[in-house]
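Subject: for your reference before the review

Hello V.,

The reviewers asked for a structural picture of the protein, and I figured it would be easier to keep everything in one thread rather than splitting it across files. Below is the amino acid sequence we used in the manuscript, unchanged from the supplementary table.
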Amino acid sequence: MNAPTPGSLGSGSPRVLIAGESWMTHSLHVKGFDSFTTSTYMEGGTALIAALRSGGVEVTYQPCHVAANAFPDSPEALSAFNVIVLSDIGANTLLLRDNTFMRSELTTNRLQLLRSYVEEGGALLMIGGYLTFQGIEGKAAYHGTPVEEVLPVVLSAHDDRRENPQGVVPEIVDPGHPIAQGLKDWPAMLGYNRAALRPDAHLVASIGGDPLIAVRTVKAGRTAVFSSDCSAHWGPPAFTSWACYPTLWLNLVHWLAGAKN
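And here is what came back from the structure prediction:
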């Protein structure tokens, strides 16, 4: 597979694919005898995408319902990107394309494809949320998958959310790591996905005594996790408006792409 190797772009702009960070809500309103429904569509990755693009990163965005069928399903398609970002998108969305779920056709296992992509030189970032890591009620379902095998953390088999409505402030563990450069005065977060650091991974920042930012080299590739959210609800307005918010994501992407050593 001709996946991009870390550092292949030198000082150029990394190419990033972000999948997830969207949802639809269908609400029932009951007012005495009468009722009606409303529907809304939301995207939660706006601040993240803007932060990356502000630093010259080339971002392709696939909301959950688009990624379900459009997410790359071949080594050649994945190799167009230096970094793949999964944020609040469950394993089933990547596993069950319409061809398989509705028509029982054989299709590519895109979780296996992501593992191979990393091992052969690509990079993967998983951002926390209700439908990444193991997620709410375990429904993100990445535990025991090929994607978990390459992450810097071991996932829980159960609901792994740690809700902190009182706020919990991240702590930098390795201030000398490239990802930690320029990060200061971190605002409180409202929760995260709890996971265990792998022995061969490196902890950059913690939250509530658990990994927040962890990185790992997997054969020729690199992986990282950010176990809280990139926006609401675990990432409050103070986080998305934080002066260091663009720095955080640019540092992560450049380290993953190999542009920083």
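For the response letter, the relevant points are probably these. The CA atoms of residues 19 and 37 lie 28 Å apart. The first helix runs from residue 46 to 54.

Happy to draft the paragraph if you're swamped.

O.
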